[in-house]
Amino acid sequence: MAHHLLVYGAFGWCAEILWTALCALITGVRGDLGDDVGPQKLSREQRLRLLGHTYLWMFPLYGVGGLAFERIHEAIRAWPWYGRGALWTVLIFAVEYVAGAALCRLTGRCPWDYSYSRYHLHGLIRFDYVPVWFAFGLALERVHDAIAAM
Questions:
Q1: Keyword Transmembrane helix on this protein (predicted)?
Q2: Partners of 125 in the beta sheet?
């Protein structure tokens, strides 16, 4: 079980670092880094650095979330891909919202702040990330299958 937690935590961290670096490259904006400055416009040189980021809090969140989703994956394995992706999207939003609210209470601030986005809910989730979480949930199934095969 500890092995699974480590794999999910590392997978989530790597995916988040890749995502934030590519978003900065494509959009020319670096999202909120928790410094109360909010999104920052990047120069061409800054974009090409491919600077990605994550937070230490995310490792246990991805690790425990991955473990919790293993049983769900087994239960819905026979569902069509679009049904599984839709369920993962809803569940990931729920985890992101609850974890963000808990971190706000614990530390005084959520590590991520989506309040700059037009499509946010309390700054904790972004509804325009539906395709991202849909794909991420389906990718997590592949990670689960690979871990189970070890």
A1: yes
A2: 121
Q: What percent of the chain has pLDDT over 90?
A: 74
How far are the Cα atoms of 38, 79, 150 from residue 34, in angstroms, in the given order?
A: 8, 39, 38
| Identity of the residue numbered 26 | I
Give the span between the Cα atoms of 62 and 60, in whole angstroms. Answer: 5
Phi and psi at 40, nearest 5°, equal: -120, 135
Q: Determine the Cα–Cα distance for residues 121 and 97; give it in Å rounded to an integer.
A: 9
Q: HSE of 73 in the Cβ direction (CA atoms, 13 Å)?
A: 18
Q: What share of the chain is helix, strand, coil (3-state, %, to 5)?
A: 65, 5, 30
Q: What is the pLDDT of residues 89-127, one digit of tens each?
A: 999 999 999 999 999 999 998 888 888 889 999 999 999
Distant-in-sequence, close-in-space partners of 144: CB < 8 Å, separation ≥ 6: 66, 69, 70, 73
pLDDT digits (tens, 9 = 90+) for 15-27: 999 999 998 899 8
Q: What is the CA radius of gyration of the chain?
A: 16
Which helix (H) or strand (E) is 120 found in, with range? strand 120-121
Q: What is the DSSP code (8-state) at residue 28?
A: S
pLDDT averaged over every residue in the chain? 92
